[in-house]
Amino acid sequence: MSEPPPTRKLTIIAKDPGLRLGPGGPMAFVEVSVPAEILAKGPTGYRIKVVDYNATERRTYLDQQEYQAGDGMLVDPFAPLPGETREDPAYQKRLLADPNFHAQNTYAIAMRTLGAFERALGRRVSWSSGGHQLHIAPHAFAQANAFYSEPDRALMFGYFFRQDGQPVFTCLSHDIVAHETAHALLDGLRSRFSEPSGPDQAAFHEGFADIVALLSIFSLKPVVAAAIGEDSRFVDADRTIRLVAVGKLTADAIRNSILLGVAREVGEALETGQRGALRRSVELTPEAAHLLHGEVEEHARGEILVAAMMNAFVELWSERIAELGRFAGDSYNLDAVVEEGAKLAGHLLNMAIRALDYCPPTDLDFGQYLSALLTADRELVPEDEWGYRTVIRTMFERYGIRPQGATCDAEGCWQRYPADGRLTYARSNYQAMTRSRDELFRFLWENRETLGLSPRAYSEVISIDPASRIGPDGIALHETVCQYVQRADLFGAEFKAVLGTERPEGMRSSDRYTAYGGGVVILDQYGRVKYHIANRLEDAERQLARAQYMVDTGQIGAPAAPDRLRFAALHQQRMGA
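Above: the chain sequence. Below: its structure as tokens.
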């Protein structure tokens, strides 16, 4: 058998079954590149294992597909047959009715999403479960829901029926599959973000997953072109240029397009076509967003973050489009427009993912993510030539999200750790620190007073990740990203003694409570601390605010939901909202 190439092609439904190639036209099927591997039945690869069991019907859909030919060539079992095209109604009907195609759709989209994270971070990304393979159940149950379950090491996709009896499969939505995969990847990178915390942390999980889903679709250029639509053509002796009318590319027109809505088919099916997309956060105005800052429902609050990011995308894309030459004064080159959108979305997606390395590992808020976003970009691209950071900072501020005051510099980025920070390196081995959690913990413990670690708490280094990224100048940036967490399990009666402030109103002395702290230490290529980004355990103001929020929202004194139901409950609540 010959060695496989680096990538292979597999057919998926682009964006969503709600995206049509023209009014009343066929759905958008497209072939995408994923890492090449010799797939087992499922399909099952080294990172994704599709287990197509339907719990409602108590049946398993057997995978009959061959992903390798007899000569070892990698094949796409759902490529059009001779004489077919991807636009043929018979071809599309055949794939929609085949549960094995649904399985391939989820596998390919999940692998594309994983690839986007690993390219942005410059390293392999692990699942939170500790296992190598994430399970996917494309037809897990008959319910309008889809969720990530860390204890089950799985993504669960449901299905439901329209009023006319036609099924709607959440596993056929690129938006939903990418969203749930982003949850799993974020949980692997920042496992404490799924713990109870302040209002922003759970909302960040939902908002970030939507950002990944929305921006990743722009890499499918034919799909973006089809969604915008061709209006006319310019033909000369050498070439034919597809044109799009200026009116289709205003900021409002872009906001209203299917490209910036999440899961159109599911949203329409839930309310007989009146809802449109499941979420259209980009249409949230700054005025409306300010009202949501008091919202505790995670999806609703998360839309603030999505609206800020996607409106920054709209503004930057509009600026790029305006710089393109016009044809006959009222048209743009459609392919040039799509190319600019793809480059911009790719840059913003990389920024959004890289920012995770610069986020504290516990009790995240939106302002801290903004600082991480700006810092991650400046580290790789010191000169903000295209104005990305300026637009992002301005747009986030319009939506009430601001950098973290004294811990940031004038540009909103995290301040670097001072070179004269009085850290002791003499008793630590740099090479060992980049590999051994015990060695890194020794360094942190030796410097606990300088770094602000509590000596009374349970402390643990939870990850050490080398990262290597290439900037636009071709120069590699090498860093080591180290996470540590601290926790204190206590009763309400011990709140002041341990955390230095009176316990919140409504907390009883017998209530159990867990306080968290922790930080990210970024080591440069010389083994020196470049950044220390932390939420200290002994921060009385922050701990009181978090605990008061948890009391007010019923998260203290009430039994916690099983871990596997946490994301399921959140998504079910939002589906029916």
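Residues 7-189 form a domain with the Elastase; domain 1 fold (CATH 3.10.170).
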